[in-house]
Amino acid sequence: MTSFTESMDIRVYYEDTDHGGVVYYANYLKFMERARSEFLRSAGLELDTIEADFGVMFAVTEAHLLYHAPALFNDMLTVESSLTLIRGARIAFNQKIYRKSDRTLLTSGDISLACISREGKAARIPAPVVYPLRNHLTPKEIS
Q1: Average pLDDT of 9-18?
Q2: Helix (H) or strand (E) holding 119
Q3: Which of 4, 12, 44, 60 gets the highest tally of CB atoms within 10 A of its CB?
Q4: What pTM was computed for the model?
Q5: Is residue 142 domain-resident?
Q6: Which candidate in 16, 18, 53, 102 is catalytic?
Q7: Residue 110, φ and ψ in degrees, nearest 5
């Protein structure tokens, strides 16, 4: 297995900021959500296809964020996502958001998700979903 980090660039729009032009704290979670979707896409997985084929979805169960510096209106950001855990019904990511121009770390976070059925009950992550993620896991934690 190799270490893998998926990067995605996002521009800060006016709608992402407060009155002072600083990104509103909850919007970092939106940026991370988009980047996790792109991470899965880079592994050949689409969330809508996973639901259609296996009847499961992913729901955030924990989000631990640290805010290091503010992002500002019109900044170009880079969101880096690393998969850190696949186990049973759990999947977890470490994500970092940088200002692209100077690589200043703005926000870092550990996000845990549960695989759930359409009825909202925990469900084991289907093997055809786990398999393509094996080469994207950092560190080596699969069970």
Answers
A1: 97
A2: none
A3: 12
A4: 0.91
A5: no
A6: 18
A7: -115, 125
Which H/E stretch holds residue 94?
strand 90-99
Nearest in space to 4 (alpha carbons), one of 112, 77, 81, 78: 81
Q: Which amino acid is at 97?
A: I
CATH of the domain at 13: 3.10.129.10
Cα three-residue angle 140-28-54, rounded to 5 degrees = 50
Instruction: Identify the pLDDT of residue 7.
Output: 96
Q: Could you give the number of structural domains in the chain? A: 1
Q: What is the pLDDT of residues 65-102, one digit of tens each?
A: 999 999 999 999 999 999 999 999 999 999 999 999 99
Q: Give 13: exposed, middle or buried? Use CB within 10 Å, 0-12, 13-18, 19+.
A: exposed
Question: Is residue 17 within 8 Å of 78, Cβ to Cβ?
Answer: no
76: tokens are 């170009």
Widest CA span in the chain: 47
pLDDT digits (tens, 9 = 90+) for 21-64: 999 999 999 999 999 999 999 999 999 999 999 999 999 999 99
